[in-house]
Design brief:
About 50% of the residues lie in helices and about 0% in strands. It has three helices and no strands.
């Protein structure tokens, strides 16, 4: 888990130019399915847009945030598969 979190943090910092803020999510995710089906007990949630708006009726996300998050996920994936 630490490897995934570290890789994603490095990738986000590369894309946005400063370390990401790590927060505990106030929402729920499909992590319970990963835990039950595959035994994966921890997960990292990452995505574009303001956390305060996530999954709200008026949720919005700037296109630049979509591009940046996609770049960060791609960089993190490349790092993780090159290990």
């Amino acid at each position: 888990m630490a490897g995934v979190r570290a890789a994603l943090s490095r990738a986000v910092e590369t894309v946005i130019g400063h370390p990401p803020e790590l927060v505990a999510s106030p929402g729920t995710y499909d992590q319970k399915h990963f835990a039950r089906s595959a035994g994966i007990q921890h997960c990292v949630a990452y995505g574009p847009g303001p956390l305060e708006e996530a999954h709200q009726p008026d949720e919005s996300c700037p296109v630049d945030d979509l591009v940046a998050s996609t770049q960060a996920l791609a960089l993190a994936a490349l790092e993780l598969v090159s290990c």
